[in-house]
Amino acid sequence: MNRIQTRFDALRTAGRRALIPYITAGDPDIGTTEALLHTLVASGADIIELGVPFSDPMADGPVIQRACERALAAGTRLRDVLALVRRFRERDADTPVVLMGYLNPVEAMGYAAFAEAAAQAGVDGVLTVDLPPEEAHELTQALLASDLDPIFLLAPTSTEARIRRIGALARGYLYYVSLKGVTGSARLNTGEVAEKVARIKALVDVPVGVGFGIRDADSAAAVARVADAVVVGSALVSRIEALAGDPQQLNAEIGALLGAMRTAMDAVTA
Predict the structure, then answer these.
(1) For labelling, which of 104, 177, 226, 261 has a CA lying 20 to 30 Å from the CA of 11?
(2) Of 16-30, 154-168, 175-189, 254-268, the least confident
(3) What's the CA gap between 200 and 159, in Å, rounded?
(4) Phi and psi dihedrals of 67, rounded to 5?
(5) Which residues are the active-site residues?
């Protein structure tokens, strides 16, 4: 049993939902990211999605696109991200870390080599947003061989057959993209999300997280009523962009936003 399953089991027993923040590794530099990882945990994060910067982040909107550009300009590469996770593990042995990004850097390293290096660094799961499950067999097998969870996306347009197929492949959790568009693109319709998540949960056995469109405590609480996990990204990354020159204020504001989400989520699931 890896850290992701352990965490979801504990949350289920406590009647709580997972709060999963996303930040881009190396934005604006690795040192800032390392400090933020611990701030996220202290502020209520249950699992962390750590973005691997890529030059063509096609699923992401302008906020995360710019984060990738800043991280790459600072020299952040996949091996730097793995080294960052390894340092994080020196202080935190329990919080699950999921690498989220695009296939090209993983393919360049080699699937088996990547999976082994990620596992040794302390990574728990991998989500490659541009790799459809129909083409994911080789990477999935490499991840599973290293006890890493392959995590997949579901869209509002996913059919019942596709939901079942992806649910059979996924480990850890499924990431339901609540909006048709890129990250940070619009406000979510919580009624539509509730209806879709209920359909998904009737078809799969793994926890279902919802991301895209979660901006504040109210939207996080609304999603916590219907999903197993709440994923927040652009709302955090936009603050990193605005406050990159003031690390103390940055950590304070990130902590306050995530803490407010945690409190609101716990209030509706208590």
Answers:
(1) 177
(2) 175-189
(3) 10
(4) -60, -45
(5) 49, 60
